[in-house]
Amino acid sequence: MSAGLSSTWVYLSTSPLLWLTVTLLAYAAADWISIKAHRNPLASPVVIAVALVILLLEATGTDYETYFKGAQFVNFLLGPATVALGVPLWRNLRTVRSVLVPLGCALVAGGITAMVSAVGIAWLFGSPPEILATVAPKSVTTPIAMAIAETLGGIPSLAAILVLVTGIFGSIIVTPLMNLLRVSDPAARGFAAGLAAHGFGTARAFQVNEIAGTFAGIGMGLNGAFTAIVLSLLSAFFG
Amino acid sequence: MLQAITVLFLCQLAGEALVRFLRLPFPGPVLGMLLLAAILTVRGRAGPELETTTSVILRNLVLLYIPVSVGIIRQGANLSRYGLALGTAILVSTVLTLAVTALVFQFVARRRNPIPDPQISDPQISDRGAARSRGPNREATP
């Protein structure tokens, strides 16, 4: 019996099916917890799901390579899912033709501020190039940020965490900060939230009002494309 | 469903092939995203299949971050070494980015259209008016 159990475990623990299933179950559990917490940004489903998987890996003494052999099937879909972001990008672009000038100015100013300030501060602390390449896309939505980090020689998994922290922090401070700065235009507030804090900022903006939410979605989409283009140009010239 | 997925894979494939062919330091899937947006702009419509499939994928986008994010277990050395630098960079940069973006947007918009908008004249944008949970996972998509 116990020999049967242990040989079953030996089979399962190295089988891609087990870790693929674990990933899906961890996501389902994390999503359920997040709903129970009323989608509070601090109860982020990614954080909960990743923590659950890590706990299980530690408890069973499984290494990351073994886990990834199963999880790679989910990971593979990240590429097509990034392409899918083109649909909301196209839909949002159609709705904003009237405010194209303020939008373009804010995109260039904000997008460059996000990259330059993050990289500049990390550089002042003496961080090496691979860390700078990892923090550069921190304001951009996770799939794009991971892809940028990888292209520039950064660390995709660390980039994912930095993006997450940016999103949580940004979505918490955006409303008090905008009130402090006396920015009252919901389009400006929303656009800033999406540009600086991607999906978390967008979700926050939708809680405040519909206009802010729509502009946040636009800010998120445009800054993803803008950051990827600027960073790849920079790395082509200096890389 | 299958047709829409094929479109997404084709766009990604074109993006990956293009960046390699042109030797661009640019992520293939992001170029695929721009290609899809460009195709839709030319066509003028997405169609129900692509709309439904992409919305299902995007609502569950968080699932797709898990495998790479679990890789953080191997980043202990980097986190303890550069944690302070990265933490400071994120906090300061996020405040600066929010402020610069919103101020530039509002400044340019007001210069171009000085007539006060009814929305602009109301500084107290309600935080509580909108429903907190707006469908599955909107909040959870960084």
UniProtKB/TrEMBL annotation, chain A:
InterPro entries: CidB/LrgB. Its main location: membrane. Keywords: Membrane, Transmembrane, Transmembrane helix. It is a multi-pass membrane protein. It holds the Pfam family LrgB. Coiled coil: none annotated. The keyword Transmembrane applies. The keyword Cell wall biogenesis/degradation does not apply. It is found in: Membrane. One of its GO terms (cellular component) is membrane. The chain crosses the membrane at residues 12-30, 42-61, 73-90, 99-124, 144-174, 186-206, 212-238. It comes from the Bacteria. PANTHER family: PLASTIDAL GLYCOLATE_GLYCERATE TRANSLOCATOR 1, CHLOROPLASTIC (PTHR30249:SF0), PUTATIVE SEROTONIN TRANSPORTER (PTHR30249). This is TIGR00659 family protein. It comes from Faunimonas pinastri. The lineage of its organism: Bacteria, Pseudomonadati, Pseudomonadota, Alphaproteobacteria, Hyphomicrobiales.
UniProtKB/TrEMBL annotation, chain B:
The keyword ATP-binding does not apply. It is a multi-pass membrane protein. GO terms for cellular component: plasma membrane. Coiled coil: none annotated. Residues 118-127 have a biased composition (Low complexity). Pfam families: LrgA. It is found in: Cell membrane. Keywords: Cell membrane, Membrane, Transmembrane, Transmembrane helix. The keyword Transmembrane applies. The chain crosses the membrane at residues 27-44, 56-76, 82-105. Residues 118-142 are annotated as: Disordered. InterPro entries: LrgA/CidA (IPR005538). This is Holin-like protein.
